Amino acid sequence: MAESAKPSGAAKRTRRKTGAITLHQVAQLAGVSPISASRAINTPDQVSPKLLEKVTLAVKKTGYVPNLLAGGLASSRSKLIAAVVPSTVISVFNETIESLNTTLFNSGYQLMLGQSAYSASREQLILDAIIGRRPDGIFLTGLMKSEKIRSQLLATGIPVLETWDLTANPIDMLIGFSHTKIGTAVANFLIQKERRNFAIVRAEDERADRRTRAFIQAVKKQKLPTPFVLNVGASRSIRSGRDAMAEILRSHPKVDAVFCSSDLLALGVLTEAKFQKLDVPRKINVVGFGDIPFVADMIPALTTVRINGMKIGELGARYLIERAEGRTVAEPTVDVGFSIIERETT
Amino acid sequence: MAESAKPSGAAKRTRRKTGAITLHQVAQLAGVSPISASRAINTPDQVSPKLLEKVTLAVKKTGYVPNLLAGGLASSRSKLIAAVVPSTVISVFNETIESLNTTLFNSGYQLMLGQSAYSASREQLILDAIIGRRPDGIFLTGLMKSEKIRSQLLATGIPVLETWDLTANPIDMLIGFSHTKIGTAVANFLIQKERRNFAIVRAEDERADRRTRAFIQAVKKQKLPTPFVLNVGASRSIRSGRDAMAEILRSHPKVDAVFCSSDLLALGVLTEAKFQKLDVPRKINVVGFGDIPFVADMIPALTTVRINGMKIGELGARYLIERAEGRTVAEPTVDVGFSIIERETT
DNA sequence: TTGAAAGCGCTAACAA
DNA sequence: TTGTTAGCGCTTTCAA
Hints:
Two copies of one chain form a homodimer.
Chain A: H1 23-30, H2 34-42, H3 49-62, H4 68-75, E1 80-86, H5 94-106, E2 110-116, H6 120-132, E3 137-141, H7 147-156, E4 160-163, E5 173-176, H8 179-192, E6 198-202, H9 206-221, E7 228-231, H10 238-251, E8 257-260, H11 263-275, E9 285-290, E10 303-306, H12 309-324, E11 333-335, E12 339-341
Parallel strand pairs in A: 1-2, 1-3, 3-4, 4-5, 5-11, 6-7, 6-8, 8-9, 9-10
Antiparallel strand pairs in A: 10-12
Chain B binds a DNA duplex through helix 2 and helix 4.
């Protein structure tokens, strides 16, 4: 009878298992109880060296890989962190996500990616998908504006980190910087460069809007002409930057400085300026936003606003992990600031 | 005694629950059994309208969000797909990941992101983290070379999709294209443009290596001088492209065409050419690889090799889902091909 | 330091 | 169409 357990009595109903090695089997092979095997694997310094050795050997022999779904269910700690990112192929968030992912992984956490949406119903769908996985933390690029989702998030008790912005009322933790300050700083920077006639090329984006408004205000404060604002909508490609610049040169030929809401847009502006053989920076100054990795090496090298995206990702991961492991973070709101990197376009 | 169940006899040990609404509570509120509630939520057309209505109401009232960890454990279907991507901030894979993610989400799956590593031990770690989550499918950017991991992957029974390359021995499914054919095609394309003295700027990457070798072979076939190959190592930035071009112009001034292993490298080559006031394309032709979104709109617009990354992501998602749901895919290996997009640099 | 029992929240299998 | 029962594979609680 090398059969399985008791084929006797009422035919036991049986589930089709996955066939993967379980902790049970490892424990059996090692001649210990499952819980001991669990401890040997998860908290090796809580078991005797002898037990540790037996279990380690059994794990190696079987090629056991713990089922984190089961572990997560039992411990209500999923070791998963979810991130919600806007869907743009090349963006200023890439660096952040990458450093977030790396830091999390090094601490034994995995990253689940959700793409943020424009419609509210879809946003709710994404959030439910995330909450359904019971992640140990949620990383948001941007602030969560929907009051309904904010309270839902709060109710779950899952640590939430909002980023890339500042607000007086974060859901939970916040690592960001002030878009208003950026707008003001860039305006003053250009005014100091003796620029007088401004244009702003911006995408449809609430944060860009705040930078724009602050810029305008700073310009008005100096009694200079009100900047010409061009909203390119959702598309933030080089193409739309070029088109915007063509439009600016047509309707406002006196413009001598352009502030763009993204580096890609700025690259487009530069491209059109070059196409029309305008002297940058003498005739026109251009400032971008983001400092994506290669704008420093182009000719002319782009003056832009730099955000330390890597820091946001790394610090964010650390914050989320701290909270996931039951600790508190001393400073739940952090302003990482920004810097204007002056290069050849100003 | 509005207490919980029987405080009698031996003090029942109790676990601290998470506090989240469970299916149980929803069922209770709706006055049905948990399994009926489950069916109403997951397979609504298998229950009566009356039951469906009761459960829907209860879900709405409680704000119930199903625990996918528990569901995954019980059904051994996690609704998770894992992707392994190389860690490069701006890359040709962005588009693929984005369309993969979107397509998966629309079918109720989530994407887990793993960053592929250079060391073998780390690669094993990443894979164990992935397998531990019991995903319903694994998306690999590239081929898996480690024989050990290949067989481990195969043993799990999880559907695996390799991409961005072609091979006679895929682990499971494969959606890619031939790097050898690309090298040959680009060489012939440039030869046809009356180019004679070639240089190749390439990153340290096995696929780039195959493109390079095919390129060289095609050139040799025409009895033209052997191309000068410059390996820039791991860094594929604009900066290294510029440096490489400077080196080429110094050591091989007769070069009249450069093939780069990435668009960013090509942009660097162009930048240096412009810096040295060389006429592109008259004096020198430049071809990139990847067709990242903005190289079309630069001046000069880059001639490059285009891969349909969106298609790889979308088709890949569909394949993985098919297999996750127990169906088979008719054509487990797909060559999506490539095209040389001729623009102003040739 | 180790183990037995119980149960995390859900669904598969079976029965009515 | 609905319900009962028994787990999925792990960790917590309690006890030795």
